[in-house]
Amino acid sequence: MEIAAWSVVGFTNYSDAIDEFKIYNQALSAENIAAEYQKYPR
Question: How many folded domains does the chain comprise?
Fold first, then answer.
């Protein structure tokens, strides 16, 4: 799988580790994202 992003400097590939990712079948609200983020303390 390749993950990349468009930024102000152009198209860049993501070259770091990803621990986990999720695919949703709906758009998440800011509250949904905050709740997911809070599940995994640093």
Answer: 1
